[in-house]
Write a structure and sequence with these properties.
Oligomer: single chain
Number of helices: 8
Mean pLDDT: 77
Helix content: 55-70%
């Protein structure tokens, strides 16, 4: 049905009615059926990112954070891709996070409002609430050494290529 609709209205109204866009419009309506519930601070790109999130609490969290913090579309995408919601749930409970995001509750502890915990999965450290400084330092130094060695090897290969 969407393919037929796209084929019939595209010649008259232009390329803005492709099958993909019409499917996104349908998904948008299913996710946000009440037009008055939409937020004027968010644009179509941000809503396209939000409608891809199946979990209603997670979607609401990102929606509220984008509005409260004035996130651009790229910032919202970065926060979604970095798993901000999941990272916060590791250290806090879901109910408290949503209450703070909805401004229904004032944070009592500093860790309730810290929104950018470090993402260090590239270090290969096991997932833990706390780390010893020596473990973090050791993992960082090891990764830096490997990176520098790789750069030296690539550079020497490149220099041989030039000779």
């Amino acid at each position: 049905m969407i393919r037929n609709l796209s084929a019939s209205i595209t010649p008259e109204f232009g390329s803005g009615f492709s099958v993909r866009i019409l499917e996104q419009c349908r998904q948008f309506y299913r996710t946000y059926p009440i037009a008055n519930a939409l937020r004027s601070q968010l644009n179509w790109y941000q809503y396209r990112l939000l409608i891809q999130i199946d979990n209603e609490d997670k979607r609401e969290y990102y929606e509220l954070e984008a509005v409260n913090n004035g996130w651009t579309g790229r910032e919202l995408e970065r926060q979604i891709n970095s798993g901000l919601y999941e990272r916060l749930l590791l250290s806090n409970d879901k109910k408290t996070i949503l209450e703070v995001a909805r401004k229904q509750r004032i944070p009592e502890q500093p860790d309730e409002i810290i929104k950018d915990p470090m993402v260090l999965e590239f270090l290969g450290l096991k997932r833990d609430v706390t780390y010893y400084e020596k473990d973090l330092e050791s993992a960082l130094i090891t990764n830096l050494q490997l990176f520098l060695l790789e750069m030296i090897i690539r550079n020497s290969s490149y220099c041989k290529f030039l000779i």
